[in-house]
């Protein structure tokens, strides 16, 4: 069955002023995102992954190129995306619930309904009882769950996740990957994830976009077909390591130890 394309990036270019003149970062980036897709973007450090996100979210304007959303040309997806970054960016002076309610407050959503939704999310994400705690009282994994709830509560069409778990220990990361996949499947969300972690990209994604070159372009797009959508189950799939090695090869990472 043909999949519906939700977002189309076409020939996106971006350069910045550097110390020694203009630096071209994106040279014409093209890729598609399907409805309810889970796409990871990987590539070398500094290749422009976050720049792509900032352009999609409307924090930066591209120098050239088209953003097409559900068949309509738009300048960005402001108001349609939820953006979550590596740092949880919770306000220390606000309680967990007050932090989560920030999005609905800004969108002027009905307060009682938003509060009920927030409490339900806290329950689902194993955070019942911490609504009145302050961020400094929580572990890193709990804070990222709060940040994820805050992102989901505004009901964005697309979640942009920029290395959301990279500061966490492996066990917490595995747990939160599962929470994320469950949440996006339950709420039918589309996810675009930037990660440095190839293992995470293979375990979570339906497709992986590899950026490369200087300035960057899309080097390849890989469809990931593993038997399980659970991040732990996916890692146990016999084909997992094939995808892992292919993507390492794309990034010129040597995976064989010389004899
Ligand atoms: N606002 C800006 N002004 C000037 N240069 C910028 C700006 N934003 C990004 N850059 C430069 O653009 C390049 C790409 O940055 P970007 O953060 O998008 O890369 P990245 O692939 O996300 O990097 P990393 O993997 O290290 O997080 C870098 O050289 C960066 O210094």
UniProtKB/TrEMBL annotation:
Species, as recorded: Xanthobacter autotrophicus
Single GO MF descriptor: ATP binding
UniProt-listed InterPro entries: AAA+_ATPase, ABC_transporter-like_ATP-bd, ABC_transporter-like_CS, ABC_transporter_ATP-bind, P-loop_NTPase
Name of the protein described by the UniProt record: ABC transporter ATP-binding protein
Keywords: ATP-binding, Nucleotide-binding, Transport
PROSITE patterns: ABC_TRANSPORTER_1 (PS00211), ABC_TRANSPORTER_2 (PS50893)
Family indicated by similarity: Belongs to the ABC transporter superfamily.
Gene3D superfamilies listed in its UniProt record: P-loop containing nucleotide triphosphate hydrolases (3.40.50.300)
Family annotation (SMART domains): AAA (SM00382)
Domain of life: Bacteria
Domain ABC transporter residue range list: 7-238
Pfam families the UniProt entry points to: ABC_tran (PF00005)
């Amino acid at each position: 069955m043909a999949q519906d394309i939700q977002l189309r990036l076409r020939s996106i270019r971006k350069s910045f002023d550097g110390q020694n003149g203009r630096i071209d970062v994106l040279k014409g980036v093209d890729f598609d995102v399907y409805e309810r897709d889970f796409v990871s973007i990987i590539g070398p450090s500094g290749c422009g992954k976050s720049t792509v996100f900032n352009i999609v979210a409307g924090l930066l304007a591209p120098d050239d190129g088209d953003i097409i959303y559900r068949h309509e040309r738009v300048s960005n997806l402001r108001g349609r995306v939820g953006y979550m970054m590596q740092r949880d960016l919770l306000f220390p002076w606000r309680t967990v619930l007050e932090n989560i309610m920030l999005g609905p407050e800004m969108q002027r959503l009905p307060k009682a309904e938003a509060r009920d939704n927030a409490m339900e999310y806290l329950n689902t994400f194993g955070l019942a009882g911490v609504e009145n705690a302050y961020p400094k009282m929580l572990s890193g994994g709990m804070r990222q769950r709060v940040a994820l709830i805050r992102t989901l509560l505004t009901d964005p069409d697309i979640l942009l996740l920029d290395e959301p778990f990279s500061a966490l220990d492996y066990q917490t990361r595995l747990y939160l990957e599962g929470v994320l996949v469950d949440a996006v499947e339950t709420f039918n969300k589309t996810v675009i994830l930037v990660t440095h972690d190839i293992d995470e990209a293979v375990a979570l994604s339906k497709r992986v976009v590899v950026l490369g070159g200087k300035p960057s372009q899309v080097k390849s797009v890989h469809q990931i077909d593993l038997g399980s959508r659970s991040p732990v189950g996916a890692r146990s799939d016999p084909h997992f390591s094939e995808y892992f090695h292919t993507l390492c090869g794309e990034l010129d990472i040597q995976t064989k130890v010389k004899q």
